[in-house]
Amino acid sequence: MTLSALSALAVGTSKNAVRAFSRLSTGTVSGNVRQMSSASSAFRPTFVASAAVEGQAETILVGCGAPNRGMGWYHAIQMLEKKCPSASLDYVVEPWFMGPGAEGPGGPEFKEWEAETEAKYGTKFVTSLDDLPAPAQPRLALISGRTADNPRLLEESIKAGCKCIYLEKPGAPTVAELQKMKEDAAAAGVEVLMGYNKNVCKYVRKTREYAETIPNSHVTFVSNNAYENTPESLGECFERNAEGMLKNMAIHELALLASFYEVTVENIESVTADKEFSSLQTLPGPSGKEFTDFDKIKFTITTKTGQKVSVSADRCGGEDSFATVTDGNGEEVFRYYMPDEEDKKHVTELKEKYPTAMPYFFTQDPDYITVKERVAKHTVDGKPAEGIATIGIAVETLRVAEYLTPILQEQLK
Known about the structure:
The protein is built from 13 helices and 15 strands. The chain has helices at 3-12, 15-22, 71-80, 107-121, 150-159, 175-188, 202-211, 231-240, 251-260, 341-353, 359-363, 365-381, 391-412, and strands spanning 28-30, 33-35, 57-62, 87-93, 124-126, 139-143, 164-167, 191-194, 218-224, 268-273, 279-284, 290-303, 308-314, 321-326, 332-338. The radius of gyration is 22 Å and the shape is globular.
């Protein structure tokens, strides 16, 4: 069959008929857009239209990462499993594992997952946003690539006809870059919402509600990851997240402070590191280059308007996050975990289903779903995405991260 004939078939047949044809073809045919792939060829003809139907956002995942490790991959899994009914994952843009990284670590695993996903769900895989056709439904880009690439990827997403952009934290390497992204999106009439999932977390809501009932209460937000406490593991973490802990792991907590505790650079009166808890290390990454970052940090911020709040983050602290409330005497009177007892069964089920995936995916699974669904639904109907941080909040959060990092590093020397 010629390419032109195949294209005509793609446009003229129903989605079900097309998917039936795809099972017989040498490539993968899905909806009205086809990507044909084979082990021996990088040839990928692109056809027209998407699988999204009315009431769904035509969703592009920009930056997938390695299966079981990349945050983008887990976003894809949730959408493919229909956990976010307003989002149809029609395209995955992955330049690294479909290009220079194809034969490196994670490359073969990605190729296998790509083939399985194309065959089972009909999702199309491309190396560039330039490869996409015009939108058939309201288009949403979920950008989950390297932070350093985000300014370019946002610009390309705007050019690709996106109505809304879901941008993973922290958004950009610097405040100046993120501010320009905010301005460029506004000029194009494109809304940018942030993947600050802890803004909608159950444990955050319950902690804040309880603190309001206690006179002179003090809240501490605690975030843990489960990296091995070895130079090799932390060195790899430092290099992969080279923007630093406050712009990466702890940025969610800083977003909470900016959203709910009036924390801005201008309103910070003082910040004090807990030197007994905190640790600052310089370690070589896989490339051999050295990186200096916190492997754990705890600090308290006092604002000029009288607020006081603490953050604790530990790369090797475990798999949970939680928040505490202390009373006016410093006694802990409340603690709420993520996941709570209600959610732990769900976490266990996910671990059994994806035994080699990053553990923190599972503890935050319901919140990732909530944020994506609210953003996707907003993309379709234009109604407010309740509780979702805007890029304006992200700019203020990143400003706080840039302000705090050198101060805390100096206190730990």
